[in-house]
Amino acid sequence: MVTFPQSGLLPAIALDARTDQVLMMAHMNQEALRHTLENRTDVRLNYGDVTGYTKVPWWVQKA
């Protein structure tokens, strides 16, 4: 279970899987976290398949 701080936001950090370099730091609220875990758990995604702008492999993994 995740406990949200009073601000209602948790840090969301994207790391390079090979180097552990931080690629992005953002914040997500409870709704965004729930949506992510319900729809994209342990699934590898290729961003850009729809738009064609980028191809960055990534995935979300439950702890």
3D architecture notes:
The protein contains 1 helix and 4 strands. It has 63 residues and is of the alpha+beta class. It has one domain. It has a two-stranded antiparallel ribbon with strand order 1-2. A two-stranded antiparallel ribbon has the order 3-4. The chain starts with 9 loop residues before the first strand and ends with a strand.
Set out the fold topology.
Blueprint: E1 10-15, E2 22-28, H1 30-39, E3 43-47, E4 56-60
Antiparallel strand pairs: 1-2, 3-4
How many structural domains in the coordinates?
1
Numbering strands along the chain, what is their spatial order in the largest sheet?
A: 1-2
Q: Ends: how far apart?
A: 11 Å
Report Rg.
13 Å
Number of E strands:
4
What portion of the residues fall into strands of 2 or more residues? 35-45%
Structural class: alpha+beta
Shape: globular
Mean pLDDT: 74
Number of helices: 1
What percent of the residues sit in helical stretches (DSSP H or I)? 10-25%
The profile of the biggest β sheet is: 2 strands, antiparallel
Order of helices and strands: EEHEE
